[in-house]
Amino acid sequence: MTIFPPQRILMGPGPSDVHPRVLNALSRPTIGHLDPVFQDMMEEIKTLLRYAFQTKNALTIPLSAPGSAAMEAAFVNLLEPGDKVIIIRNGVFGERMRENAIRCGAEPIMLDAAWGTSVDLRQVEDAFHTHKDVKALAFVHAETSTGVRSDAEALAKIAHDHDALVIADAVTSLGGIALEVDEWGLDFVYSGTQKCLSAPPGLAPITVSARAIDKIKNRKHSVQSWFLDLNLIMGYWDGDGGRSYHHTAPVNALYGLWEALKMLHEEGLETSWARHQACHDALVAGLNRLGLEMLVEKPIRLPQLNTIKVPEGIDEAVIRQTLLTDFNIEIGAGLGALAGKVWRVGLMGQSATPRHVSLLLSSLEECLNRVQYDCPRGEAVSAAWSILKQGD
Ligand SMILES: *Cc1c(COP(=O)(O)O)cnc(C)c1O
User: Fold this and answer.
1) What number of other Cβ atoms are within 10 A of residue 320's Cβ?
2) Under 8 Å CB-to-CB from 291, ≥6 apart: which residues?
3) Per residue in 160-216, pLDDT tens?
4) What are 147's strand-pairing partners?
5) What mean pLDDT value characterizes the chain?
6) Ligand 1, pocket residues at CB < 6 Å
7) Are strands 165-169 and 188-190 parallel, antiparallel or unpaired?
8) Which atom of ligand 1 is nearest to the CA of 142?
9) In this predicted model, what pLDDT tens digit does every residue of 46-61 receive, in sequence order?
10) Is the pLDDT of residue 242 over 80?
11) What is the pLDDT of residue 240?
12) CA-CA-CA-CA torsion for 197, 201, 204, 205, nearest 10 degrees?
């Protein structure tokens, strides 16, 4: 069987649409990972990543693995057996952090917030007062399972007041919303390529502060994972001529990331953040015209991950299926506590455009109409465009 993938419109929780420039870059000639040309590219990727993360951190590199491996890298490198870590859990990814911490032999202290909300900062302060000698605070900046934004800056401040390192999951936030690694004092930040960077999945940019490197270099126990041990990876990505073989870097995948980062740089970070916000505002205006509501309160709502409440009596899976089969549009289902109750619409990277917003609104309207959902016809797209025009 010859597999020829369809041309989908990707509006789920990732991957997002990949620009033809990036797809073309992937097919450039494969060269050796120790080739001087490849090494030059690595240096450029590091520079472009520092821009995307807004950091001067020397250790800013793409890991040759998906975002989940970068999460694991943060925990296995920064935590040792017996270390206490405060983890905020308000969705799927906070729970995965706990599982990682346990596998490191660390002691996770969980702070829960209901799905669709963010943690109360006083709860975090209290936890640091109750538990002494906490080594790290970990949280998800953009919770893709719920569409909630965490106050990364305020959380980092609390952690530093108590001498704890900050682990921030920025898989869905990088490129989509403000993320200021140095200004906010985040120590270990990891991301993924397939969300707001709009490169194919499989790579995970990370950036690590000098404070965190110090901890990694002075561990009492060696890192339990050989592949993710940053002490070894640093020797591979180092530009000072001392590069030693660690693994074979995914050369072509890195061409794709390189191109995607160049596109982000050409557009400008602030412009990219504003584009995500404008598309989100337009989408919400259109959804409201269809009588649909958002799960998350506006002040903590992510523009790039829109969690829409499924109206009473509507089978959410039927709508999602019809969007895919009849309109080629992929959106996401609710996870865990939100299964069956919400749709998750991604406006990430190249999928954050007025065209995507219009397509989703008109197609969703048609799908809802087919299942006798009562809403005005032909108004949602205009409502969205009236917002987009204001922003011109
Ligand atoms: C997608 C995602 C991950 C995992 O990334 P993979 O590339 O799928 O391994 C981790 N954290 C968050 C917040 C995500 O959205």
Assistant:
1) 20
2) 311, 374, 375
3) 999 999 999 999 999 999 999 999 999 999 999 999 999 999 999 999 999 999 999
4) none
5) 96
6) 14, 66-68, 71, 93, 140, 144, 169, 171-172, 192, 201
7) parallel
8) 13
9) 999 999 999 999 999 9
10) no
11) 59
12) -20
| Predicted structure pTM score | 0.97
| β-strand pairing of 165-169 with 134-140 | parallel
**Rounded Cα–Cα distance for residues 18 and 284 (Å):** 24
State mean pLDDT over 216-237.
Answer: 94
Give me ligand 1 centre to Cα 224, in Å.
22
Pocket test for ligand 1, best of 118, 144, 302 (most atoms within 8 A of CB): 144
Cis peptide bond prior to 15, omega within 30° of 0: yes
Average pLDDT over residues 76-81: 98
Give the Cα separation of 339 and 276 in Å (integer).
25
Q: Which of 348, 375, 346, 352 is nearest to 362 (CA)?
A: 375
Which residue, judged by its Cα, is nearest atom 15 of ligand 1? 144
* Euclidean distance between CA atoms 190 and 230, whole angstroms: 13
CA distances from 314 to 190, 240, 311, 324, 371 (A): 37, 59, 6, 17, 8
Length of the chain: 392
DSSP state of 34: T
Q: Which helix (DSSP H) or strand (DSSP E) does residue 287 occupy?
A: helix 269-289
User: To which H or E segment does residue 363 belong?
Assistant: helix 354-370
Distance CA 211, CA 163 (A): 11
pLDDT score for 298: 97
Phi/psi for 193 (5° steps) reads -90, -20
In this structure, are strands 188-190 and 204-208 parallel, antiparallel, or unpaired?
antiparallel
Give the span between the Cα atoms of 255 and 263, in whole angstroms: 12
In contact, 193 and 172? CB cutoff 8 Å: no
Read off the tokens for 307.
């969690």
Distance CA 197, CA 365 (A): 29
Under 8 Å between Cβ of 282 and 387? yes
